[in-house]
Amino acid sequence: MTDRPASPPPIIQGLRTIADRYDVILCDIWGVLHNGLEAFAPAGEALQRFRQRGGQVVLVSNAPRPNGDVLTLLDGFGVKREAYDAAVTSGDVTRSQIAARPGEPLLHIGPDRDLPLFDGLDAPLTTAAGARYAVCTGLVDDERETPDDYAGLLAEMHAAGLPMVCANPDLVVERGTALIYCAGALAAAYEEIGGTVTYAGKPHKPIYERALGEAERIRGAHVPVSRVLAIGDAIRTDVAGAHSIGADALLVTRGIHAAEISPLGGSLDEIALAAWLEDATHRPQAIIESLVW
Q1: β-pairing, 178-181 with 172-175?
Q2: Residue 67's closest CA among 117, 16, 128, 107?
Q3: Which CATH superfamily is 15-91+203-288 part of?
Q4: What would be the CATH architecture of the domain defined by 93-199?
Q5: Would you list the domain boundaries of the chain?
Q6: Which of 22, 62, 86, 253 has the highest CB neighbour number within 10 Å of its CB?
Q7: What is the pLDDT of residues 220-274, one digit of tens each?
Q8: Residue 102: CB partners within 8 Å, gap ≥ 6?
Q9: 107-146 burial by CB neighbour count: b if 16+ within 10 A, else e?
Q10: Would the keyword Hydrolase be found if you checked this record's keyword annotation (predicted)?
């Protein structure tokens, strides 16, 4: 069932206009805090202002790597640690799922840069022929390959009955101005041919449960979901994920949906936005062009 309020969600000019409604923010990283090439400084400043008012910020990312690696990346971009209290990644959830299958050989689908995901785990890597299951972190060469390049491998996996753990449910992500295929696109292709997939990240509940647990640990108290705001740039993951736990969602339009919402580029096209929302599976409680205070 889709969530369709009677009136369009408001377009806000800054997080400050709704900040008092919330104690915790669960914030997406890629598309909100950076675009894969550079940080969005005003977004980090907005989160820092929220924390200065007594709120907690937990970054929630579909990055298929442990949170420590993601925080190092944010440091490199210049995102200040004062902008957030903690981070939870789909890589963290994936590691828990791998740890639950000690010693079982697995097929890794993805680039070598994601290999830290397996550090310290009893998880021997092997080929499709010798694996008990597969862990997909992305395309090996995501700047040149498409899911079609994996049709043969996915067919081999399906014939062998291998379940897949998808460590990044995103279909695409921004890298500068380009859209790059993610592990979620391979997982969707695998499901289309009858393969079984378990998703570790957004919009599925395990990553949100972990993130809320972090927020409550830091706050030292239970946080009702009515006081939680999820911020992200994707309807399919960020907004749908927020609704799955009963939290509000703030959609950042300068992200993966930018070309659909503002087809001519430039500022937010409210007419295009309204038409686009008519077909959206979920609607946010509010919309902002870019995250600012």
Answers
A1: antiparallel
A2: 117
A3: HAD superfamily/HAD-like (3.40.50.1000)
A4: 3-Layer(aba) Sandwich (3.40)
A5: 15-91+203-288, 93-199
A6: 62
A7: 999 999 999 999 998 889 999 999 999 999 999 876 666 666 655 556 767 777 7
A8: 121, 122, 123
A9: bbbbeeebeebbeebebeeeeeeebbbbbbbbbeebeeee
A10: yes
Is the bond preceding residue 203 a cis peptide, omega within 30 degrees? Answer: yes
Question: What are the structure tokens assigned to 256, written together?
Answer: 């993966």
Please check whether residue 83 is in contact with residue 47, taking contact to mean a CB–CB distance below 8 angstroms: yes
- What's the token pair of residue 36? 């894969």
Residue whose C-alpha is closest to residue 165's, from 185, 130, 137 = 137
